[in-house]
């Protein structure tokens, strides 16, 4: 029997980092438990109202955040606030964002470059481009999210 996974990020600013990854992956912020968030309403505003209503102190309201795949296919991603900085320069685990499925060569790299530009506008950093080296590599772009976590556009 296979298992579902949740990916967890340690973060200084869970809300901001979850918003970046929401926009990067096409995910959504779920609403608070027992709260129906109307179509077009901001689920983060619903969380603010919910946390205030249940008595969570304002300084603790950015301690956690989560995003989910609206199609229910991908893993839930959880963000938890931690006080310490990232100490290693390289992640031991990172995400590969499939931004050019089925594409090859220059067409693939052009699609990766377009996605790279979109993510840089959202706050990511471009670290390097690795050119295609068939048959073992189709090429990819290494990036970092706004808090320095490395990921690849693949």
Count of beta strands: 7
CA-atom Rg in angstroms: 17 Å
- Helix content percent band: 25-40%
Structural class: alpha/beta
Query: Which series of helices and strands comes N to C?
Result: EHHEEEHEEE
Number of helices: 3
DSSP strand content: 15-25%
Distance between the termini: 28 Å
Main sheet summary: 4 strands, mixed
Spans where pLDDT lies below 50 across 5 or more residues? none
Which shape, going by the Cα principal axes? globular
Mean pLDDT: 93
- Lateral arrangement of strands in the main beta sheet: 4-7-6-5
What's a concise summary of this model?
With 154 residues, the chain is an alpha/beta fold. The chain contains 3 helices and 7 strands. The strands form 2 sheets. The protein has a 4-stranded mixed β-sheet, covered by helices on one side. Strands 1-3-2 form a 3-stranded mixed β-sheet, with helices on one face.
Describe this structure in words.
The protein has 154 residues and is α/β, with parallel strands linked by helices. 27% of the residues lie in helices and 22% in strands. It is built from 3 helices and 7 strands; from the N terminus they run E-H-H-E-E-E-H-E-E-E. The strands form 2 sheets. Strands 4-7-6-5 form a 4-stranded mixed sheet, covered by helices on one side. The mean pLDDT is 93.
Spell out the blueprint of helices and strands.
Elements: E1 6-11, H1 14-25, H2 43-53, E2 64-67, E3 76-81, E4 95-97, H3 105-122, E5 125-130, E6 140-144, E7 150-153
Parallel strand pairs: 1-3, 4-7
Antiparallel strand pairs: 2-3, 5-6, 6-7
Keywords:
about 25% helix, 3 helices, alpha/beta, 4-stranded mixed β-sheet
